[in-house]
Design brief:
Blueprint lengths: L2 H15 L1 H11 L3 E3 H6 L3 E3 L5 E3 L15 H11 L2 E3 L3 H15 L2 E2 L2 E4 L3 H13 L4 E4 L12 E3 L4 E3 L14 H10 L5 E3 L5 E4 L4 E4 L3 H11 L4 H17 L7 H10 L1 H7 L3 H8 L3 H7 L15 H10 L5 E3 L4 H13 L3 E3 L2 E10 L15 E10 L8 E6 L3 E3 L3 H7 L9 H17 L4 E9 L3 H5 L5 E5 L6 H12 L10 E5 L14 H10 L21 H8 L15 E8 L16 H19 L6 H4 E7 L1 H7 L14 H8 L11 E2 L1 E3 L8 H17 L5 H4 L4
Parallel strand pairs: 1-4, 5-17, 6-7, 6-18, 7-14, 11-20, 16-24, 18-25
Antiparallel strand pairs: 2-3, 8-9, 10-13, 11-12, 15-16, 16-17, 19-22, 19-23, 20-21, 21-22
Helix pairs in contact: 6-7, 6-15, 6-26, 8-9, 9-14, 12-14, 16-17
Length: 716
């Protein structure tokens, strides 16, 4: 309390006990009356002859800074002093009652989706539009979208997407395009990236990938004529796999027959990527090129399954696309579809527990039958900003819960270790947790977000394609560097960097052609039915899930508009390198603003080394950067609730793939709890496309394949 408020408080109390005060009151008004507003808020007033209240407290004392004394003190002072108190206006009492009643209303939805990543939004949108469900999506962050959201800096001048860099299979008629259009109501416009959309840069050579598969194949044969036969076989295998992926939507007997038809491919799918490449090719440079996209799933060739390699390679056979307006347009469009059916996306809502009950009624002796299993009955939610002091606990009733929070979070944080009502469920949970502990999590990344002083095409000759920079052709070197990260980072030193991925998001976004302004962005946002600041709950300032400084900024910076009219948007770049998430474990439990000088020193060194790694392959890049901000694995952990800061969730190793073929790790989506379904990337594959198809598969797991067939064919 400030000094002037203390003085005012004691002066007011003395005045009440002073008979001269009462005499003054009677002389002025004809009666001794003190409004209860004073007694409750220290706004001392005298009721005038006309019934109005004259304030004795200086106007500088604001009501919000006053000290509430409560009704009990009001009554006691009235009784002891004989001063009549004036009751507060009845309108205020009505408002309080209404608010209390609203808070007490139970929440009940047809389905609850945990997490608003693209997998969760897909599940929610499909349920809303196909089943006519009222769906509640619960997002623990204060922005919806997971890795399909955007963030801005410098008053909205620079914009980045922390998770979406490019997406394949967006040609009209492609299955993934059909699903995207259905989930978003066709509101997202896709723009194709210029060729070469991927460039692999090695010390002694480079290779640009064409979006024409035939051209891609011919370019490889021209560069490696001795490997022509193997290259042709490789492209046949990719096209076979692209056709084979649909078997997950077939009945099991049909799926088994399809697998036999593709027996030759299936044999390679049960190998690591390195084993398959060694079987097909002998030239190490060719292997390095074909495995150059390993960062899109996070595992080096010796650990990743060849199936996962085929997922990514087939996905980008026809090139890459980017959504006009950035990644957040996807989340906003899906959110609009969900809300159009009476659903809701609730932000800053962390699920603390998935609630269960026995599937069957009580046994003959009034005891619960432990052999009948469990089913969901709802979720318990903590509503409030992470790290904040104000929150409330809500209970939501539902019979269907879809978790896009990942297997680790679902089974280690949201479900009890032991289920007293059902021993079988307890054992099933134990088996899943044992498997999860065995396979671990995917690697993480460090990302440098750069604001450029001009168009990268004019400054650097970059038309918007991705750069994959490697210091050597052996991709396994990244795995060897992991030990250096673990020993160097805690001591405040950044290890040598040998690999990075560079993208230029602004060059692939059509808004920037012809010099798009932030006013243009504002107008587009309004046309899409959204306020420029974005829908839903917003933090103070403009913050992002991919920046550790975001939480600190949101608490200390005044609100700043994301869109500044008549001000040109700045071009941007992102530089990413892959790291073991546990390298930063020293600060994992420390809030962003309290990590100290050692942590800041590491970030500064990483920034300098990333810029130095890019410079030889893109001369002038460092000079073109006018704004930079770096995030570490702790950003994924702190803002995306990702265990160990993993960028992709479950690792896509051969071990995980073999477990899934055996029906482990909740393969297919269903869990030991009836009504609890896994959705998103952990159900199917990494990346935006994989997570979206996982969201679709989750609906199929609960409601059957007929519920999604029209969507796959683009007829919904």
């Amino acid at each position: 309390m400030h000094t002037n408020e203390l003085l005012l408080f004691f002066s007011a109390i003395l005045a009440l006990s002073d008979q001269r005060f009462l005499a003054y009151s009677r002389e002025t008004t004809g009666s001794a009356r003190v409004p209860s507003g004073f007694l409750n808020s220290l706004h001392l007033g005298i009721a005038g002859r006309d019934g109005s209240s004259r304030r004795l407290v200086p106007p500088s004392l604001k009501r919000e800074n006053a000290i509430p004394l409560g009704p009990s003190l009001s009554s006691r002072l009235s009784a002891e002093t004989g001063v009549e108190t004036v009751a507060p206006p009845p309108v205020k009492r009505k408002i309080v009652k209404k608010m209390k009643k609203k808070q007490d209303e139970p929440l009940e939805y047809d389905a609850v989706v945990i997490g608003s990543g693209i997998g969760g939004l897909t599940t929610a949108s499909v349920l809303a539009k196909v089943k006519n469900y009222k769906v509640l999506v619960l997002e623990q962050h204060y922005k919806a979208g997971g890795f399909t959201h955007s963030f801005r800096r410098e008053g909205g001048k620079f914009e980045w997407d922390p998770g979406l860099h490019y997406v394949g299979e967006m040609k009209d008629g492609e299955t993934l395009k059909n699903v995207f259009d259905f989930v978003t109501g066709g509101r997202v416009q896709w723009e194709k990236m210029a060729d070469p959309f991927d460039r692999f840069l090695f010390p002694e050579f480079e290779f640009g990938v064409s979006s024409n598969p035939k051209q891609f194949e011919q370019d490889l044969i021209r560069m490696f004529p001795a490997e022509a036969e193997g290259i042709k076989k490789y492209f046949v295998l990719l096209n076979q796999y692209k056709s084979m992926r649909a078997i997950i939507y077939f009945p099991r007997p049909v799926a088994s027959m399809v697998r036999l038809w593709y027996n030759r491919l299936s044999a390679l799918l049960n190998k690591t990527t390195k084993e398959a490449m060694d079987h097909l090719f002998s030239d190490e440079r060719l292997k390095a090129i074909l495995c150059g996209q390993w960062g899109d799933h996070g595992e080096v060739p010796s650990k990743s399954s060849f199936r996962m390699h085929c997922v990514i390679a087939a996905h980008y056979l026809d090139g890459g696309w980017y959504p006009r307006g950035g990644a957040e347009t996807i989340a906003k469009a899906a959110k609009a579809e969900i809300e159009s059916k009476g659903g809701k996306v609730m932000l800053s809502a962390r699920v603390e527990e998935i609630l269960m009950e026995p599937s069957a009624a009580a046994g003959s002796k009034g005891k619960k039958d432990k052999s009948e299993g469990m089913r969901t009955r709802g979720v318990r939610v903590r509503k409030g900003r992470a790290g904040g002091n104000r929150f409330e606990t809500l209970e939501v009733k539902t019979r269907e819960v879809y978790s896009d929070a990942g297997l680790h979070n679902t089974f280690t944080k949201m479900l009890p270790e032991r289920v007293e009502e059902c021993e079988e469920t307890t054992e099933a949970f134990k088996t899943i947790r044992t498997d999860l502990q065995k396979v671990g999590m995917s690697p993480s990344s460090v990302c440098l977000f750069c604001g450029l002083k001009g168009d990268p095409e004019h400054l650097l000759g970059q038309k918007g394609g991705n750069l994959w920079i490697y210091s050597q052709t052996d991709h396994e070197s990244v795995k060897k560097d992991a030990s250096e990260w673990a020993s160097s980072i805690p001591q405040g030193k950044a290890p040598p960097l040998s690999t990075c991925f560079v993208s230029f998001p602004s060059k692939r976004d059509g808004r920037y052609r012809g010099g798009a302004t932030q006013a243009d962005t504002e107008e587009e946002t309004k046309q899409n039915g959204e306020h420029p600041e974005g829908a839903g709950e917003q933090p103070k300032g403009d913050v992002t899930a991919a920046s550790e400084e975001a939480e600190e900024s949101s608490e200390t910076s005044p609100p700043s508009p994301r869109v500044a009219p008549k001000k040109f948007m700045g071009h941007t770049a992102e530089v990413i390198t892959f790291v073991p998430g546990d390298a930063f474990a020293k600060w994992s439990s420390v809030p962003p603003a309290e990590r100290g000088e050692t942590y800041e020193k590491v970030k500064k060194e990483l920034t300098e080394k990333l810029l130095a790694l890019v410079e030889p392959h893109c001369p002038g890049f460092s000079d073109a950067v006018v704004f930079k901000e770096i995030s570490t694995p702790l950003a994924y952990q702190w803002y995306a609730n990702s265990p160990t800061g993993a960028a992709y969730g479950l690792p896509r190793t051969l071990e995980v793939d073999l477990m899934r073929t055996e029906g482990r790790l909740c393969a297919g989506g269903k869990t030991p709890v009836a009504g609890l379904i896994i959705t998103g990337a952990d159900l199917q594959d990494h990346g935006i496309g994989g997570a979206m198809m996982g969201g679709l598969q989750a609906v199929m797991a609960q409601h059957g394949v007929t519920s999604i067939l029209k969507i796959l064919g683009g007829r919904a």
